[in-house]
Amino acid sequence: MEVGFLGLGIMGKAMAVNLLRNGFKVTVWNRTLSRCEELVEQGASMGSTPAEVVKKCKYIIAMLSDPPAALSVVFGKDGVLEQMCTGKGYIDMSTVDTVTSTKISEAIIEKGGRFLEAPVSGSKKPAEDGQLIILAAGDKSLYDEVMPSFDVMGKKAFFLGEVGNGAKMKLVVNMIMGSMITAFSEGLALADKSGLSQTTLLDVLELGAIANPMFKLKGPAMIQEKFPTAFPLKHQQKDMRLALALGDEVEVSMPVAAAANEAFKKGISLGLSDQDFSAVYQVVKESSAASKV
Ligand SMILES: NC(=O)c1ccc[n+]([C@@H]2O[C@H](COP(=O)([O-])OP(=O)(O)OC[C@H]3O[C@@H](n4cnc5c(N)ncnc54)[C@H](OP(=O)(O)O)[C@@H]3O)[C@@H](O)[C@H]2O)c1
């Protein structure tokens, strides 16, 4: 199968590498074109614009940072729409909101193409290991056709029905995750300031009912104040913002998520945008230090 791949950030690069390793022919494009070189060394072809990739490939996957990026790659100059036509399928795996996804879907379909949104749950390591959870919605025939690529990139794919359902499911999941990591950070800070060992807290959590892979993975680095980036904090804040907007739309009150969103916003203002989202621990620590003054 020959696929185009647009967006070689943390996730896109790992996913495209997996496709290459599993025998797919991959043509890549990235806004910062130099980031394509590593993939070309591993056997990928390169397109100089999104339109060029679409012209060449029947199936095109996108993994872009946020709604403005997803929209500009489709609607912008030399964008996806310029070469979209009957017979082609566009699969957007970026985390965006339903409005963005629907707008892209309508434009692709108007050009005769088919559209699938397929955001993923799972971070850098699951992307590298082909262990993502894929939350797809849109054109079922396209879903079935690109299943071999989902089998390579993920451990499980869900088909959730009409466009928007994948985006919503992803936002719900990341809203929970953002609230959890913020509560976890507060717990670590509270333990520390109360004179408790944070390592012992991690051991206690690990044995009980709220043990989870995220605490286990992130906790040891967080207590050393190390935040190697797997999921950038700026993207977690984007997901909280989009999830809160979804809550507005359907009238669900989410005070916990709203408070966590403020912590991530504060993280951005402290210059933590490109650190891992677990750096929200720095925000919590900073706030407790400030409140002592
Ligand atoms: N990292 C994770 O753990 C994770 C997990 C699940 C889902 N996601 C979601 O997956 C998506 C990608 O995440 P990531 O971690 O790979 O992000 P990333 O490392 O920040 O990469 C973002 C990608 O988007 C491109 N981009 C940004 N603005 C653009 C624009 N205006 N036009 C064209 N391209 C643009 C970047 O190109 P440049 O290289 O030129 O900047 C890069 O290829 C996001 O929606 C994120 O929320 C991430």
Automatic annotation (TrEMBL):
Keywords: NAD, NADP, Oxidoreductase, Stress response. It catalyses: glycolate + NADP(+) = glyoxylate + NADPH + H(+); 4-hydroxybutanoate + NADP(+) = succinate semialdehyde + NADPH + H(+). The active site is at K170. Gene3D superfamilies: N-(1-d-carboxylethyl)-l-norvaline Dehydrogenase, domain 2, NAD(P)-binding Rossmann-like Domain. GO terms for molecular function: glyoxylate reductase (NADPH) activity; NAD binding; NADP binding. Residues 2-161 form the 6-phosphogluconate dehydrogenase NADP-binding domain. Residues 164-283 form the 3-hydroxyisobutyrate dehydrogenase-like NAD-binding domain. One of its GO terms (cellular component) is cytosol. PROSITE patterns: 3_HYDROXYISOBUT_DH (PS00895). It holds the Pfam family NAD_binding_11. InterPro entries: 3-OH-isobutyrate_DH-rel_CS, 6-PGluconate_DH-like_C_sf, 6PGD_dom2, 6PGDH_NADP-bd, HIBADH-like_NADP-bd, HIBADH-related, HIBADH-related_NP60_sf, NAD(P)-bd_dom_sf. The keyword Repressor does not apply. SUPFAM superfamilies: 6-phosphogluconate dehydrogenase C-terminal domain-like, NAD(P)-binding Rossmann-fold domains. Belongs to the HIBADH-related family. NP60 subfamily. Catalyzes the NADPH-dependent reduction of glyoxylate to glycolate as well as succinic semialdehyde (SSA) to gamma-hydroxybutyrate in vitro. May function in redox homeostasis and play a role in oxidative stress tolerance by detoxifying glyoxylate and SSA generated in glycolate metabolism and GABA metabolism, respectively. This is 6-phosphogluconate dehydrogenase NADP-binding domain-containing protein. It comes from Picea sitchensis.
